[in-house]
Amino acid sequence: MDDSRVIPGDPAAPRPAASGCHGGRETLLEAARVAGKGEGLAKLLADYPKGPHDQPQSMCPAFGSLRVGLRMRRVATILSGSACCVYGLTFTSHFYGARRSVGYVPFNSESLVRGQLFEDIRDAVFKIAKPEDYDAVVVINLCVPTASGVPLELLPKQIEGVRIIGIDVPGFGVPTHAEAKDVLAGAMLRYARLEAEAGPVQRPRNPGGEEPKVSLIGELFPADPVGVSQLLAPMGLGLAPQVPTREWRDLYGALDCVVAAAVHPFYTASVREFAAAGRPVVGSGPVGLEATLAWLDSIGQAAVVPAAKIDAAKAHAQKTIGAVLAACPIKSRISLSGYEGSELLVARLLIEAGAEVPYVGTACPKTPWNETDRAWLEARGTHVQFRASLEQDVAAMLDIRPDLAVGTTPLVQKAKEMGIPGLYYTNMVSARPLLGAAGAGSLAGIVANQTRGAERFRTMVSFFEGVGKGPTAGYGFAGVPKEPPGARDRYRKILAAKRKAEAPTGEV
Ligand code: SF4
After folding, report:
1. What is the CA radius of gyration of the chain?
2. pLDDT tens sequence across 417-460
């Protein structure tokens, strides 16, 4: 072992090698602070404010960063974290069709505490950073290495021209996988911005025409940018590469815009880089008619487009989107929740198409970029819940009794148990356009299909009435499973004793 490098921070600091999502956020935060990660954590906590749920209620947040790296050409991604976390992350990435290897630097308690893990990461980075293969190598610290202060900032900034990007993406510092996409996208934009400021850089592979460009921020359905470029054309504007980009050189093209559009409103670090590059940033997005007209106004003004051209773009949008909305009405009561960050935009589109949407829950935070959408929805009687917990989403669904519950897996499961048609949010938005004229017509069909099944759900619920539920669900060879006699009583007593032991003195 080369002992010339040691990890910074107090060697006697708590090393939460056995902790993870369930290890206690405060313990991990404190460990990370003591281990020298205080400044980085403070930045994460400022960019991605918490509450009401502090721990992930969905997949591991680091998946967002992993996915952004894996979707880029000539970019290698290496994870540093507990084997169980890495197993889950690689499984998920291949489930979503990564078709790319995920690098992993394993560790044990000794290599973590003695600083060997950092040396091993460094060796791995030197081995993989070959300019003929890669433009950049991304290293992601998961919970335990972050809490232990593994100093990725001490990695070389580049090796033979291959950029090295080290980021901390702990579950106790980044609340959702959506925001974790921004951690990597923001770090890459920053690197690229500094490169562009220092001298000439590569052009994007498909630079497009010479017209001024708009950068869209957020992962979108592939047809969406096409629809948006049609909306922008009457103003003489084109589209720059979208962020997160699919290739390193696209980062320069994205920064070389006249205005950035934070269509997904949680890209705080990326927005900071556009602002540092002197680019104005516009919130909301071109969904439905009202939001599209307002968005075209904001984009046109930020890009200093003459009023006549803005009016021409709005007239074109009015004609195309208005016709589609009128042809595809939605007459349903819908509860909507998700963790993708586009929930408010989807709710606006549903309402404009005629749906009643009394509740929208998003796991993402309130930001300046979703403020107009929040105000628009609340003015129409929709309750908007930022940083919504699963419990809040379920309570809203029970209260509303919608024709269709759109949400995360556990919410949809609960809805179906009750005979309410349910649809996974991600399935609804990931397979169809949302923006422009194509988006205006895309949701009506799926809502109609799902709500048509309501009677079938009710029949199934009544058919299975009386069959075991919860701990007695399913059939075994010996019939419906039976509860072990006395188990509930024993468990109730254990919980009561635990509550009593934890209650402050004097309370029962
Ligand atoms: S890295 Fe992800 S899976 Fe692992 S402990 Fe942290 S939040 Fe949980």
Report:
1. 25
2. 888 999 999 888 878 899 999 998 888 888 888 888 788 888 88
Q: Which domains does the chain have, with CATH numbers?
A: 25-175 (3.40.50.1980), 213-324 (3.40.50.1980), 328-461 (3.40.50.1980)
Q: Mean pLDDT, to the nearest integer, of 214-225?
A: 94
**Ligand 1 pocket, 64 CB below 6 A?**
no
Q: How far is the CA of 23 from the centre of ligand 1 (A)?
A: 10
Cis peptide before 204 (omega within 30 of 0): no
- What is the Cα–Cα distance from 70 to 136, expressed in whole angstroms? 11
What global pTM score does this model have?
A: 0.86
Query: Which residue's C-alpha comes closest to atom 4 of ligand 1?
Result: 85
Distance CA 344, CA 346 (A): 5
CA–CA separation, 18 and 115 (whole Å): 17
| Side-by-side strand order, sheet with 404-407 | 383-385, 356-362, 333-338, 404-407, 422-424
Q: Is the CB of 155 under 6 A from ligand 1?
A: no
Per DSSP (E only), the strands in 4-159 are 75-80, 103-104, 136-141, 158-159
CB within 8 Å of 327: residues ≥ 6 apart: 441
Helices (runs of H) and strands (runs of E) counted in the chain: 21, 14
- What's the CA-to-centroid distance between 159 and ligand 1, angstroms? 29
Q: Whose CA is nearest to atom 7 of ligand 1?
A: 171
What's the gap in Å between 13 CA and the centre of ligand 1? 20
Q: Is the CB of 187 under 6 A from ligand 1?
A: no
pLDDT higher than 70, residue 2? no
- pLDDT tens digits, one per residue of 31-44: 888 888 888 888 88
**Nearest atom of ligand 1 to the alpha carbon of 55:** 7
From CA 424, how far away is CA 263, in angstroms rounded? 21
